[in-house]
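Listing S7. Sequence submitted for prediction.
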Amino acid sequence: MPWLYYSPTKASTALKDTSITAQYSPKAQVDIRLATFALDGTFLGFENATEFGHLQLCKDTIGKMQAAFSFGTVYSQELSLNLDRNYVRLDLYFFDGISNIGKLMPIPVLNRALVDNAGVLTNVVSEEDANSLTAALTLGNAASVASIESAIRDKWELTRRLFLVDSLSGRVSDAVTPATLVRYASNIELKIFPRGSGFDGLIYPPLLAVDYDNLYSAEDFGKNKRVKVAFSVTYDQPTELEAVFEQNLRIAMGVICTLAACYGMIRTWLWSRRAGVLRLDGMLILKLLLFVVGNVANGFLIVIYCISIYFLIFYKLQTSFMVNLPNSDQFMVNYIAAAFALKCLDIAHLMAVQCTVDIFFMDWERPKFPSSKLMHRTGVDGPDLHSIGILQWFLLIVVWERCFEDKLRSFADLCSITNVSVFVLAQANFGYYIHGHCPTGSSDVDMGGLELMLATERSGNAPRRGIMADSDRHTYRMALPAALRKAFDRLYAPLLDISTSGPSRGPLDSVHYTTLNDVYQTLNRFLMRFISRDNTEGIRFKIVRKRALEDLLDGEFDDTTLEGLFYVVLPSTYSSEGPTNSVCSSGIELHSSDIEAEHPQHVRHRTRRS
């Protein structure tokens, strides 16, 4: 009869044996043979566990059970079995696992239910040893990890045999009497240890770890009770390599977090310039923490993304097994959870910033007296036109606007058509400006005026759309002097009084409405004079382009104490062709001849602004 115990050979020595010379490639089959023995020790023969799944209580199709032994495939299966059926049909067998690579190599068995003479479970890792190993992995000390792991393994008592179901030991007298105790393998785990990237496809001896559970006839049998059994195959990289990986991961996270903190300081400094904060206060410290939090979250996600891409490429595409997956993905879960929590704070910060943005619509249209001429509208009804309209709406909303439309450019074109500019103050001294002053000077025109505008645009004789006479650039970032913000707040102050003294709900009364209209007109004239460079308070600005470093850091370095700066937004922000000066670029194409042919009546059209 073959020997049963590995003693006096230590487990750390047996599991580091390098006598296996077979080189495995991904998807190669791990050939596991089982030597079966009867209860009295009689050798019954060999069985192929790879082809017929004799090692698995979790029975399935042959193909699925064979997938467990495909090299590099992490396999796990769990199901419930009926105790009565197993109790009746299964007999006791002892299995000796061996690997066929031209010679038979024994596979050590780690029986976690094995008890020594003192009644101690020798093959169960103690909590103290597990904590020591975890601490060493956390520190990334490869030598310490290897030493602790060897000490843990040396406490094990490895064996050569195992059984799946024992329904004979619990019988008192004969085979007819029901067993009072049935012991079964509740969890079987086959661990395969690749030797690392320096040894192409070579492995150390596998380890078969087994957990057993007990069933008692008085409580379990005859009641259709089902128990869970599990079978799995895992690939564990050497712990010293895992320690090196942990150390490299922490170094990468440390470097990324340091860079994130530095970039957070730069963002805080740029924010202080935009917000006009000149001294260290609580808000500045809070902004620093929030910027760092957002950057650290991005750093975590970047590192995890790079690690995932690395394993996706090198693990999946390797022809000889050199790169193994980490033993646990818990580090990814931890970092992603931390990044999610930090990102929630970052999003809350973003929402708070957006709630404090001031947006003002500047109306360049001069007031006109109401027209006494009538407006005629003609509606055409027909099922064909309805279907065409529905199809057009579907293509516009679902396809064009979601996939192809440049929303910012379309909005800028709309502002130009309606003769309205948008003045956005994101911070005290920083904002965005969309110059929507219509090139023809007016948008409130009849059909004849609209046709004249379009003809002027087509001929190229219309003025340019930009603030400068020779430019079409109409979107800018603004770095403003503090004097402009003070003047804006002074003119805006009456609206704050209305919000506190006016009615909490419902429409405003005539007094508050008059005040509201006066404040709007005053602010509108003030901003129009500022953009037109006709400001009586001496507030000026000039149009410049950002330097490369300013674009990279998304900030402004020039002093704006005496003069504001309007930074041109490049055409690539919108499309590869850049913005055009044609009103027709927004999709409006009107011809009076077409309208007159369809409606011969005299039609006057007036565009309306909300």
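Caption to Listing S7: primary sequence and predicted structure tokens for the chain studied. The two ends are 96 Å apart (CA to CA). Residues 243-354 form one domain.
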